[in-house]
Amino acid sequence: MKSKILFAFGMLSVFTLSGCSDDFLDLTPPTDTVGEYFNTQEHVEEALVAAYNPLQWPDWGNGYYCPINLMSDIMADDIWVGGSSKTDNQFWHLMMNFEALPNQTPAGLWTDEYSGVKRANDVLSYINDSRDELSQDFIDKASAEARVLRAYYYNNLWKFWGNIPFFTDNLEAMPYTAPQLKADEVYENVITDLKDVLDKNLLPMKADESELGRVTQAMGYMLYTEMVMYQNDESRYGQALQYMRDIISSGLYDLNPDYAALWKESGEWCQESIWEINYKSENAVRSYSNPLASGGTVLPRLISPNQWVDGTAGVAGGWGFCPVRTETYERYAGNDTRRDATCFNAAANGEYNKRYQDTGFFLGKYIATPDGNAGQKADADLNFNNNLRVYRYAECLLNAAELILKTGGDQAEALRYVNLVRQRAHIATLESVSEDIIIRERQLEFVGEGKRYWDLVRTGKAPQVLVPDEYGYRTNTWSESKKYLPIPDTEMSSDPNLKQNDY
Fold first, then answer.
1. Statement: the pTM of the whole predicted model exceeds 0.85
2. 388: which strand partners?
3. DSSP 8-class letter at 207
4. DSSP state of 425
5. What is residue 325's DSSP assignment?
6. Predicted confidence (pLDDT) per residue in 125-170, tens digit
7. Which of 119, 224, 304, 365 could link 263 by a cystine bridge, Cβ 3.0 to 4.6 Å?
8. CA distances from 459 to 4, 247, 289 (A)
9. What tens digit of pLDDT does each residue of 384-417 get?
10. SS in 3 state form for 131-170?
């Protein structure tokens, strides 16, 4: 079992794993003011740990099921929404059909990501106020971690909502509102700050075993490249490509030979993993009454076949969300090892309750297993141990290939990177490569990982691909006005200066 750094609710308790044992660090709440408490290295570290905590919330927290990977992919063309009907998690269905409403949008995700921004800002504020009590090494590393985390949270807000309130110093007076920037302004602020952090080279290229889950230089490089490519920022393609080459040349990462093994617990933090969000079942205490506590994830329960006999074909039952489209399964070559690892064929492996939009296929990468929540201490649904894979080395290779072509580089180098990914999938190598080929390869590689929708938008393919389907599920066509979701009505009512997106 890999070590997992888990982050408990609040700032005053830290849930960590050392080796394979769990320890709670119970701390005495401060009797002084917050500023006086967070003036030691130990206490600032607590604040830094708390800044990681919101990474775990989106799957279920603040009243919404909003797994980042699913919130992205339901708007694309690889999976359906599913559930019991089109009113089950209704905002998912509305997003899929490009008819989201201010009161039917992933408001929990908005809250989760701004909580992360606020906590990252807290860390930077405490460091600034307590420099005389902190070592320079700690200041450098903790500041870099907080700034990269803040960029990650803002990246999600920017991609989903675009025109958002932006602040790098926390709001201290009523009505606690911040200027709303245009999407391009948000991008420029975040990417500039992220580049400044990465230039300082304060983070390790790869985390030590005891710190798996913390952000690294490689994670920052992937985040920077994701943002630059989504923005189609040609002025920064060269830098993004250099970052991908730095990861490749470091020798610290490689493709895992077995694609299917990537998604097992034993595959967490393998040689291919650049960054994951940690979840853990052993002694996990996440519950419906305390969903922001540290522990596991609900994602496997959401996406597994309903009323499945636990253990059949090594799978446990779930709620039937996000069935994989039949067209997705058929898109793979028969010998492509990614197909069966991605598409669990429930129809061929057991009996279950066929729910809305059922295809017989479910997302095998995060499928629930009978022992997936073993050892949990609260609500079993919320405490599966599947880490969320955010950045993998395969994406680094495909990013590099695409950027090489975009910058007029060596096509042989680009082809080599694409063929490495294909060889691992046990399918025929190519003799030539194009940007369209790379986008198709990304679709096969990243089903269910929250990449496809953003690829379609950034490449201009969304209006041609995201169109009404033959089943009558998606009846609307994506248009440029659908790029940014409606801002949640709770935010609009609390800040009269916010301008609603023209969705």
1. yes
2. 277
3. -
4. T
5. P
6. 999 999 999 999 999 999 999 999 999 999 999 999 999 999 999 9
7. 365
8. 36, 24, 42
9. 999 999 999 999 999 999 999 999 999 999 999 9
10. HHHCCHHHHHHHHHHHHHHHHHHHHHHHHHHCCCECCCCC
